[in-house]
Design a protein that fits this description.
With 275 residues, the protein is α/β, with parallel strands linked by helices. The protein contains 11 helices and 9 strands. Strands 5-4-3-2-1-9-8-7-6 form a 9-stranded parallel beta sheet. Strand 8, helix 10 and strand 9 form a beta-alpha-beta unit. Helix 7 packs parallel to helix 8, helix 8 runs parallel beside helix 9 and helix 9 packs across helix 10. The radius of gyration is 18 Å and the shape is globular.
Length: 275
């Protein structure tokens, strides 16, 4: 499907009152299973590989591999098994070793429908973040990458962390905005430090409103922090205006894997035999 066809489908879905659900896929079986569950959108990026290897998602922000090379490797595993769901590539927009317009064309040519800005320096704060901005590796490069992807007619679904970023991404042509509430809580390798759900409601709304002040037609999903399970997402959607869905990574693949394998193992351990 083309970018316009995907957006038309999503807008029709929203008009019918059906939320858009997106999910991260770190493996082919995750993507295949999520599609079987009728997921609307898939995103693959380096943290998915690390997450499904039992490491925290923030490993994707550290020097454990070439993020943009990893997503191209993962494409070979995921894209062939996905039949009808748009798949986005997580692109490290601050990568100084990529000629970004050329890389984005490769992303499009291999079969991705669009991009998301991950890894993102938006998850980094403090002096380290200030130094990244000062030395030419700041969030503005991610905005530039989204603008370039939009010009290539790729779907763009960026993470944003404050109101200025939300406006900047809307100006750059973002199609689907994802206010990011931080590392997802819950599970064996989830965060402990996070916003409350009520704080997330307030922040998600503020970021979405900022983006819609630039582009009233932008689609907005919620993600991260305390929004970990379907009940959490429902809580946010019930208390916000214009948030039309949820994007989950750990929530879609890590939690079900952790609990499903554990429960199945416990059931096998409970079987008996006759002496």
């Amino acid at each position: 499907m083309s970018r316009q066809e995907i957006l038309d489908r999503f807008r029709a879905q929203v008009a019918a009152g059906t939320p858009i659900i997106g999910g991260g896929a770190g493996t082919g079986i995750t993507a295949k299973s999520a599609e079987a569950g009728d997921i609307d959108l898939l995103v693959i990026y380096n943290s998915g590989r690390f997450r499904m290897a039992g490491r925290g998602s923030l490993s994707g922000l550290l020097a454990y591999g070439d993020a943009n090379a990893i997503v191209m490797e993962m494409a070979n595993e995921v894209l062939p098994v996905v039949k009808r769901t748009p798949v986005l590539a997580g692109v490290n927009g601050t990568d100084p070793f990529r000629v970004m317009p050329h890389f984005l064309q490769q992303i499009k040519d291999i079969g991705f429908a669009g991009i998301q800005n991950f890894p993102t320096v938006g998850l980094i704060d403090g002096v380290f973040r200030a130094n990244l901005e000062e030395t030419g590796m700041g969030y503005g490069l991610e905005v530039d990458m989204v603008r370039q992807a939009h010009e290539l007619d790729l779907i763009t679904s960026p993470y944003v962390f404050d109101e200025d970023q939300a406006k900047d991404m809307a100006k750059a042509g973002a199609d689907i905005l994802v206010p990011h509430m931080g590392l997802t809580t819950s599970g064996s390798i989830g965060a402990q430090t996070a916003l409350t759900l009520d704080q997330a409601v307030e922040k998600v709304q503020a970021l979405a409103d900022a983006a819609r002040s630039v582009n009233p037609d932008i689609l907005c999903l919620c993600h991260g922090g305390p929004i970990a399970n379907p009940e959490d997402a429902q809580y946010v959607l019930d208390r916000t205006d214009g948030i039309v869905g949820f994007y989950g990574a750990s929530s879609i693949e890590r939690f079900p894997t952790e609990t499903g394998i554990k429960d199945q193992t416990e059931k096998f351990k409970a079987i008996t035999f006759t002496k």
